[in-house]
Amino acid sequence: MKKLQLTALATLTLASPFVGGNAFALDDIIKPYESVRSSGMGGVTLTTGLYDENYFGNPARVTANPTWRVTILDPMVETNSHVSNSVRAVNGGSNIYNALGGDAGDDNHFRLQTTMPSVYIPTGHGRWAFALGFITSSQVDVDLRRSFNIEPTGIVDVGPALTVGRTFMEENDLSVGITARATYRLSTNTAFSFVDLINGQSISPRATGGQGGMADFDLGTTYTFRHFHPGGVDLSVAGAVENVMGGNFNNLKLRFLKDSHDNPTPANRPLPEPRRGGFGFSAQKASMGFLHNTSLALEFQDIGNNTNGSVYRTVHIGGETHFFSIFVLRGGVNQGYLTGGFGLDLRILTIDVSTYGEELSLNPGQLEDRRYALRVALQL
What we know:
Elements: H1 2-15, H2 36-40, E1 69-73, E2 76-80, H3 81-91, H4 96-102, E3 107-121, E4 128-143, E5 149-168, E6 174-188, E7 192-193, H5 194-198, H6 205-208, E8 209-224, E9 234-242, E10 276-288, E11 291-303, E12 315-323, E13 327-334, E14 337-345, E15 349-359, E16 368-379
Antiparallel strand pairs: 1-3, 1-16, 2-3, 2-16, 3-4, 4-5, 5-6, 5-7, 6-8, 8-9, 9-10, 10-11, 11-12, 12-13, 13-14, 14-15, 15-16
C-alpha cells in the first residue's frame, strides 16, 4: 500500500510542474514579520507604519504613533486555502500522503505571531518616542512542487525589540529612528524525498535545521513637507535599512535545543535574514467629508533581498481610510496582486483582517499564493 501511495504522490508531483506549461520553483521572499494592517494595504509600511509595525520596516515611524498604548494580547494567524484543503482531506478520511499529493504544485502556508507584551510611548510635546515589545513568530511553508521532493521552510523567531525615534527641525519635519533586536531563530533548511517522509523522516526544525541567535538593528528616516500642502494633502518620503549587520544569526550564542540524532552537527545555522533596504512616498489627508486619516503610499521594499527576482516584486501600493470613528477600510496592490482589508478599532480592542497575494516565483504574475490573515489585539 505504501508503494502505491508513493507512486501516486510522485506522479502528481512530477506532473505538476508541467501542467499548463509552468515549471516553477518556489522563491518567495521570507518575511520575519507580517502586519495584518500592512498586508491589507498592499504591504506598505515604510511611510505608514504604526505601533507593532515600528519593529520592522521603518523605525522612524515610531514618532508618528498618535497615543500611548500597552498591548497585552495580540495573536495573529495567517494561512492560505491549500492548508484548509489538506486538513479537510485528512478529516474526510484521506491519509496524510494522499492529502499532500492532492496539493502537489502548491504551497501550504501557515503563520502564528505575537508582539506581546509591548509598550508604545509617543512624542507627546517632546521629540522622543519609544516602543518596546517581545516578538514571537512561527511560520511554515511546505513546497510540494519540486519533483519527488518536499522542501519545508519552518521558522521560529523569538526575542525582544526596542525602537527609539526622534524628530528634528522646527516643526518636526524630519524623523530618525533605530530598532535594536535580539533574536533566537530555529529553522529548517533540508529537503526530503517522499521516500524519506513515508519512512518516518521528521520534518521538525529541531531534527533538520539549525538554530542560532543574533543582535542586529534597523535604521530609518521620514521627512514630511510641512509647508507644502497641495489640496490640503500632507506629503512624506521615507527610507530604511533592515538588518544592518547582515542578519546571519551568528553573533549571539543562543542554542536552547539540543541537536537530535538526525542532525548531530552543532555548527548548523538557521536560515539568514539578509540586509534589505527600501524607500517610499505617501500622501495623507486628515479629512474628506465623513472620511478621515486617509493615506495612500507607493513603496519599493526588499532591495537586496530579492535575489534574481524581478524589480516588480519590490513594488507595493496601497492605503487606508477611516470612517464612523471605529471602522477602517484598506486596499492596495502587493507584487502585482490585489489586496484588501478591514479594521475595527474599539480603543481597547482592535480587530484586523486582510487578504493579499504573494508571488512565489521570481516574476510577478506567474505563481500567486492567496493568503488570509486575522489579528485580534487587546490593549490599554
